[in-house]
Amino acid sequence: MSAPDTAKQVEVTEKQLPLHCPLPGVPLWARHPRVFLDVAKEGEARCPYCGTLYVYKGAPVKGH
User: Fold this and answer.
1) pLDDT tens per residue across span 16-50
2) Can you say how many angstroms the Cα of residue 37 is from the centroid of all Cα atoms in its chain?
3) Which of 6, 15, 47, 55 has CB atoms 3.0–4.6 Å from 21's, for a disulfide?
């Protein structure tokens, strides 16, 4: 697992919701089990497997 301070950061918009890590197109060697992350609620979420920080930059989410 990568250290959080060296992990990458990815900006996410509402078009990418629901968000899961790893993202589509990641090389097979870099994949881990898929985990869904709720970035819209808190504004950011960190993947528990690889440490990637996802930051929500989209419009406020309506509904739940």
Assistant:
1) 999 999 998 989 988 999 999 999 989 999 999 99
2) 6
3) 47
Q: Which amino acid is at 59?
A: A
Domain interval for residue 21: 9-56
Count of domains forming the chain: 1
Is-contact 50 37, C-beta < 8 A?
no
In a domain, 64, yes or no: no
Regarding pTM above 0.70, the answer is yes
Residue 50, phi then psi, degrees to nearest 5 = -110, -10
Whether 61 is covered by a domain: the verdict is no
Closest CA to 44 of 3, 16, 18, 9: 9
* Residue 21 counted as domain residue: yes
